[in-house]
Amino acid sequence: MTATILFGVAVIPVALTAVPAAFxxxxxxxxxxxxxxxxxxxxxEKSSDKFDAPSPYAPQAPGVNAANIPDGPPAEPSEPTPAxxxxxxxxxxxxxxxxGRDSNATRYSPLDQITPENAGRLKRAFVYHTGSKPxxxxxxxxxxxxxxxxxxxxxxxxxxxxxIIKLDPATGKEIWRHNSDVKYDSIPYTAACKGVVYYTASxxxxxxxxxxxxxxGTLDMRLIEVDADDGKLCEGFGYHGQVNLMKGMGESVxxxxxxxxxxxxxxxxxxxxxxxxDGQRRWAPSGVIRGxxxxxxRFLWAWDVNRPDQHGEPQPGQHYSRGxxxxxxAMTGDNEQGLVYVPTGNSxxxxxxxxxxxxxxxxxxxxxxxxxxxxxxxxxFQTVHKDVWDYDMGSQATMFDFPGKDGPVPALxxxxxxxxxxxxxxxxxxxxxxxxxxxAPTQTDVPNDPRSPTQxxxxxxxxxxxxxxxxTDMWGMSPIDQLYCRLKYRRAKYQGEFTAxxxxxxxxEYPGYNGGSDWGSMAYDARSGVLIANxxxxxxxxxxxxxxxxxxxxxxxxxxxxxxPSSGGAEGAxxxxxxxxxxxxxPFWNEFTHMMCNKPPYGMLTAIDMHxxxxxxxxxxxxxxxxxxxxxxxxxxxxxxxxxxxGPVITAGGVIFVAATTDDLIHAFDAKTGxxxxxxxxxxxxxxxxxxxxxxxxxYVAIMAGGHHFMMTPVSDALVVYALPDSK
Length: 728
Hints:
Layout (H helix, E strand, L loop, with lengths): L9 E5 L2 E5 L86 E2 L13 E7 L19 E3 L2 E5 L5 E4 L6 E5 L18 E4 L11 E6 L4 E6 L14 E3 L12 E2 L6 E2 L2 E4 L2 E2 L12 E5 L5 E5 L28 E3 L4 E5 L14 H6 L2 E6 L5 E6 L15 E7 L2 E8 L7 E4 L9 E5 L14 E5 L20 H13 L15 E3 L12 E4 L4 E7 L3 E7 H6 L28 E7 L1 E2 L4 E2 L6 E7 L4 E7 L2 E2 L11 E4 L8 E4 L3 E4 L6 E6 L5 E6 L9 E5 L2 E8 L12 E6 L5
Parallel strand pairs: 3-39
Antiparallel strand pairs: 1-2, 4-45, 5-6, 6-7, 7-8, 9-10, 10-11, 11-12, 13-16, 14-15, 15-17, 17-18, 19-20, 20-21, 21-22, 23-24, 24-25, 26-27, 28-31, 29-30, 30-35, 31-32, 33-34, 35-36, 37-38, 39-40, 40-41, 41-42, 43-44, 44-45
């Protein structure tokens, strides 16, 4: 799972010239060993780790079933309680009732009070503090990533540790708060709650408790439903309002498996995915996708990649198949087609594929359309074959009607970390716009792990990317820094996109695993046909190391007694236990200055006309004000393009709102021209997707300024809400 990344970009004056730099990430505890330093040969077999899956009888560690919810006997597949129409299918003009605003996940609002003419007058209406920040002595893992929802008279959000909160939309006054009691030990790579879900019950009459509900999936793997009016648990849901999602998962420890994305509810079925901490071991907990009844919490079905014909819960002494591709991104539900579109990642052990089953290879790094009645895939579209670059699918897909020759075609926009954007028919997964298989590098010194000779390219859509790296692209604060980066480039293997992994030397991964579009996804205006995307240009410097070398580097999986958070985790170095190799991953940067080796920009904002598939405008996103060498801010207001995480929104008023950048700003842009209209300095990094709503005749814009530990932006607990000043 991937979930997000790092780095701040800087511009500093050198010889009267502004020279951008990047990556204010805390450097990994170890860097790629490089040529002559990697152990090879039989050392791969000399390891303290076994090549066996954990016993199905191994107990889960204390705290994994956080609320001590009784499991009960294994359940057989069933169908959900018939559902009523949900507000997200046809949102009220004033509301933002779902993570992506509507069931289509467009991130488009029909509000038009804020326009290019008046956006520059935006002021803070209120700031609400969630209270969720690292306590003294705790390692900072915080990155809230939250997009609130607004329905009627309530602004609903969650803290980074899954407390559920209802606010007054005009003042930010807290109306109620449900304490979900998530412990620090349950935080995986990141303390994040991307959002909550609003659901109207079909079996509970209006005016009764839990007719309208708020649902959240937690970091410690629970589903929690509370009443939308008072925040009290819905007693008829699961076990007194909660469902234990660790049932059937087998051996695990707190923090290994977690939910960070809001689960869609499709025709009465809550569809649940989860992240599995990257880089730990081949036989990590399962990436199983499951359905639960939205009214009762009753188990409905499971899609378990290596148990494709078994849709019930595992029998006693068994568990869901381990190490299968997990899905950590926000899914998209299609009530009309009866499908949920699941963005998948890799099998566990991202950078080594020899131990993967054929079934895993067919569905990794793909969009999988699952039938919500049966739990069976209806179709699969793969974006990377035999992925060993961590190009897991981080973005939520967007539904729209594509203008076909015989009328509108139900379509799906699928962004990727590669910067390839695929447009598919939702009914069968076939490309609507052309896709071709192109030759890919296959040379590698990794034994018995051949690469795919071709990879898919979306030739019908503009690529969100730049040409392959060249030595002349190397950058630096001074000629010495540039020379250092040129030497580093020469030491590495690089054959363009999909350069295969190496043991004996580092290889360049470009786009990096935070390239292109990540979890912020895109925004789409169906009226104009304009698609808005912010994206990254961030190469990585990787190297496989033998098991002996991994042991020497202290790379241990999270469930090992010797594991320490500083020795490897979801990003950077990883143990990849149960395989012959560990992995060392670092930014392609100058380790001394923490400035990127490739020339800027490192982040971009692009508008695409979906009628013609042409770029309307494009420019760097993010300034140098809060970034610089050694992580020091330059305070220079130069727009040079910084790495970014979090998505855009677009409004009928013709304004785009996006934060995401490492300059700690929220920005407003003119949707027609791309001109920046306004910005404001946030109290923390804006690594979240904003939203907008109207209440009592006034339009508001909200952004969670929670910061991000790995992007090294300031962590805060502030939800910041803006509006135009009242007219005199």
